[in-house]
Amino acid sequence: MNKNILFSLNFYSIFQTINAQNTANVTFQVDMSNVADPFTIPEVNGSFNSWCGNCWAMSDADGDNIWDVVGTIDVNTDYEFKFSADNWGIQETLLQGSPCTMTNFGFTNRLLNVSGDTTLPVVCWESCNDCSFGPSSYSVTFEIDMRGVTDPYTIQR
Fold first, then answer.
1. What is the pLDDT of residues 76-122, one digit of tens each?
2. HEC secondary structure over the chain
3. Could you give the CA distance from residue 104 to residue 20 in angstroms, rounded to a whole number?
4. Does any domain span residue 149?
5. Is the pTM value of this prediction over 0.90?
6. Residue 61 sits in which domain range?
7. 144 beta partners
8. 15 is a domain residue
9. I want to staple 85 with a disulfide (CB 3.0 to 4.6 A). Which of 29, 39, 133, 153 is the partner?
10. Do residues 154 and 63 touch, judged by C-beta distance below 8 A?
């Protein structure tokens, strides 16, 4: 009977060691300095937390507008994520084809795959880089005055 207890304890110890190596603590950081929309609390949403809304709420302890949160995810697994705020009240619009993004089913999200505990670099809201690089995309409105056109035309958007 003592051998069974010893075997069970060893098996449990090995299982705990293997299980601990399958997850990683990841620190997510976003610079909210350039966010035009009003917000209260940013959050991280992704395939690792079922796009849960505000369950991975971020904090800014030193008031520098760089918000962070630590989450535990599986290692060596591909994830998609993005930053949002106030339970999806606002969310990033990421540029398709950027080096940190992937587009699936019409949604462009950030990519993540880690092999151990990681602190991700600070990124600017809606950018793959820090805020010193400026935004990765701009909103542009084009207008044309068609009042003088006499030929038939159709409006396409």
1. 999 999 999 999 999 999 999 999 999 999 999 999 999 999 999 99
2. CHHHHHHHHHHHHHHHHHHHHCEEEEEEEEECCCCCCCCCCEEEEECCCCCCCHHHECECCCCCCEEEEEEEEECCCCEEEEEEECCCCEECCCCCCCCCEEEECCEEEEEECCCCCEECCCEECCCCCCHHHCCCCCCCCCCCCCCCCCCCCCCCC
3. 31
4. no
5. no
6. 23-133
7. none
8. no
9. 39
10. no
